[in-house]
Amino acid sequence: MEEYDLALKYVKHKLTISQDIGDKHSESTALGDLGNIYYITGDYSQSVDCSQKQLKIARDIGAQWNEGMALNNLGDTLSKLERYLEAGNYLQSAREIFEELGDLNALAATLVNLAELYQKLGQLEQAMKYCNEALAIATELNIPLLHNCQEQAAQLSVSTFQSKS
To answer: For residue 143, which phi and psi values (nearest 5 degrees)?
Structure first.
């Protein structure tokens, strides 16, 4: 936990500097970083707050990648809070942005989040669809997300088999 406290201190400092010099792009990025730290430490309400602020700034300045990340992070966090409809809307919007930008790495992460969301909703076929899309991208890129995709696909296969039995 000590590492996260230190990270929080430095990212808050980065945020303050960004605000002081009027660098909106860096401010948006710092808010995303803060949101991620709060997410990892389980402070989901703070994570949502930071991601919403990041989203507003990203949209104001036209920073599409930051917008996509804020949407993805909001969707993932709201899913943890069982606010599934909102989560799905944010994740679908993030997916569209990353597809448009051609950022396959970010797209794969968003697809994994969509797969997890639909798995929680018991919509296993839809979950498997997103999981397979993420797995194909992760395999093509050989990114660390590949292992997570493989595990999720295996879990979904078991769940799908059990639901049909």
So the answer is: -100, 160
